[in-house]
Amino acid sequence: MNALGLSAWRLLADQSRPHWRLIAAGGALNLLGTAAALAQPLIAKQVIDSIGSGQVSAGPVLALAGLLLFSALAAGCGTYLLERVAAAVVRLARGRLITRIMRLRVDAVDRPGDLISRVTSDTTLLSSAASQAIVEPLGAALMLVGGIVLMAVLDLSLLGITVGILAAILAVTGLAMPRIARAQTGVQRSVGEITEALERALGAFRTVKASGMENAEIDRLETATRKAWEHSTGAAKWSALARVSSGLAIQVAFLVVLGAGAARVASGDLAVSSLVAFLLYLFNVGQPIATLVRSATEMQLGLTAVHRMREVAELPVEPEEQPGPAAEEPLYPQATAAFHQVSFGYGDRPVLREVSFTAAAGEVTAIVGESGTGKTTLFSLLERFYEPSSGLITLDGGDVRQWPLAELRRQIGYVEQDAPVLSGTLRENLCYAAPSVSAEELAEVLARTRLTEFVESLPDGLDTWIGHRGTTLSGGQRQRIAIARALLRRPRILLMDEATSQLDAANELALRQTMAALTRTTTVIMIAHRLSTVVDAHHIVVLEGGRVRTGGTHQDLLAKDGFYRELVGSQLVAS
């Protein structure tokens, strides 16, 4: 077995271990059912012998009927228990996968559509793998081994013929298995590409429509769909070959054994009843062989899914929380954030170079610079979405790496550049990070962000459904909702990434007044592209080429720095 298969089997075994009692009970019932089924041909032999001797008895017939009923009941109950285990394995695996994905580092989630496919499509296939690994093979293997042993008791020469024919034809099945696995890996990869392409198109649906690019996105999806079809066709071809081979093996073995057995009966070397019993065992053996072949082919699908799920476990996650100074009650409501010689890059591309500045407690610090100079990256580093390649970032003088992540992020409110909203009601979005906020606090923040009138205009108020990604909202409304959501957390430090870019003049003026009042309890760091949002800042940091060029107030920078004057004249829009 290759490394992929071994890894997948280990994962299945790990997921199944908590259910060993159910597995043992189900296995025992299957064993009893199989034993009853194996006894049936021997009872049938006795019935035939009694008919031949003219001494017909009801005992063997009743015993045969009882064995049939007991075998069905035991096997049915055993299969039910094992199917429950299979369902529990899938539930556990899906839960672990979701938990793992939600704890991934931000830079690991570069293909969300593929991750969605692993949670939905791959875990569904895991159900087949768990069922085929736990339920089907156990009973089939018991029937196969028991049948062969009893066939040996009846006639060794006929058993030799049977094993030879089965081995020769079933060798083809063994050749097909790795090809099925390779084809199914391609299928699952293509399904991930389909999900990713669909997520891309639906995530920017208005852009697709407005750009007239529906056909281009359809072509992209059809390409992924065609690849999935090609791989599925390959898997189906080899699966069909494997299953036909198993059926052919039984049929050929039956014909050869029937001919050879008839000759032995004619010569007096074998009783008719023994030949009948042997043929019954041959069919009994044929069924588990077909079951094992079917299980093996379907296992290739499931093990491929297990392998793809295991790949998620190898993606980098955020560090485990460790006790640190953040557990202490802060001395001041506002926080002081500082960057000390911080450098960072995406892969081989440097973005920040020895950046140093301090955002003092209770002040508004603005960060300005040309596009691509690393302004948003500074926020990502402070939130610890990424780790700097060198340098130190502190909050209240303590290294942010020593803070438990949850505690660190509890200090921070983050308003992202694109102001994302979640599918749900307006209330759910506003209270997302503060579910226990009071009605009075919510009303206060709505007033401060000029959302009160908007909420009152909605048909269901705060309980109005705002649609997938806020498609029913304007850009300015999304930004105000994002700002309100951050304020409801009552953060000690508020990060605003161009959070006023889509606000009109009246709403922006109101927000500037809110920011001025907010500094009594919160430190504000904002990335700005409008002059009107930076002129009132206590301190402005000017980035150029990933470095801090200079810093100061708006008037100081106008007087001393030509680059800042250029930004004011070209990139910052005059108020």
TrEMBL record:
<feature type="transmembrane region" description="Helical">
    <location>
        <begin position="63"/>
        <end position="82"/>
    </location>
</feature>
<dbReference type="GO" id="GO:0015421">
    <property type="term" value="F:ABC-type oligopeptide transporter activity"/>
</dbReference>
<dbReference type="Pfam" id="PF00664">
    <property type="entry name" value="ABC_membrane"/>
</dbReference>
<feature type="domain" description="ABC transporter">
    <location>
        <begin position="337"/>
        <end position="570"/>
    </location>
</feature>
<keyword id="KW-0812">Transmembrane</keyword>
<feature type="transmembrane region" description="Helical">
    <location>
        <begin position="158"/>
        <end position="177"/>
    </location>
</feature>
<protein>
    <submittedName>
        <fullName>ATP-binding cassette, subfamily B/ATP-binding cassette, subfamily C</fullName>
    </submittedName>
</protein>
<dbReference type="GO" id="GO:0016887">
    <property type="term" value="F:ATP hydrolysis activity"/>
</dbReference>
<dbReference type="InterPro" id="IPR017871">
    <property type="entry name" value="ABC_transporter-like_CS"/>
</dbReference>
<dbReference type="InterPro" id="IPR011527">
    <property type="entry name" value="ABC1_TM_dom"/>
</dbReference>
<dbReference type="InterPro" id="IPR003593">
    <property type="entry name" value="AAA+_ATPase"/>
</dbReference>
<keyword id="KW-0067">ATP-binding</keyword>
<keyword id="KW-0997">Cell inner membrane</keyword>
<keyword id="KW-0813">Transport</keyword>
<dbReference type="InterPro" id="IPR036640">
    <property type="entry name" value="ABC1_TM_sf"/>
</dbReference>
<dbReference type="GO" id="GO:0005886">
    <property type="term" value="C:plasma membrane"/>
</dbReference>
<keyword id="KW-1133">Transmembrane helix</keyword>
<dbReference type="InterPro" id="IPR039421">
    <property type="entry name" value="Type_1_exporter"/>
</dbReference>
<feature type="transmembrane region" description="Helical">
    <location>
        <begin position="247"/>
        <end position="266"/>
    </location>
</feature>
<dbReference type="GO" id="GO:0005524">
    <property type="term" value="F:ATP binding"/>
</dbReference>
<comment type="similarity">
    <text>Belongs to the ABC transporter superfamily. Siderophore-Fe(3+) uptake transporter (SIUT) (TC 3.A.1.21) family.</text>
</comment>
<feature type="domain" description="ABC transmembrane type-1">
    <location>
        <begin position="24"/>
        <end position="301"/>
    </location>
</feature>
<dbReference type="InterPro" id="IPR003439">
    <property type="entry name" value="ABC_transporter-like_ATP-bd"/>
</dbReference>
<feature type="transmembrane region" description="Helical">
    <location>
        <begin position="20"/>
        <end position="43"/>
    </location>
</feature>
<keyword id="KW-1003">Cell membrane</keyword>
<dbReference type="InterPro" id="IPR027417">
    <property type="entry name" value="P-loop_NTPase"/>
</dbReference>
<feature type="transmembrane region" description="Helical">
    <location>
        <begin position="133"/>
        <end position="152"/>
    </location>
</feature>
<feature type="transmembrane region" description="Helical">
    <location>
        <begin position="272"/>
        <end position="293"/>
    </location>
</feature>
<dbReference type="Pfam" id="PF00005">
    <property type="entry name" value="ABC_tran"/>
</dbReference>
<keyword id="KW-0472">Membrane</keyword>
<keyword id="KW-0547">Nucleotide-binding</keyword>
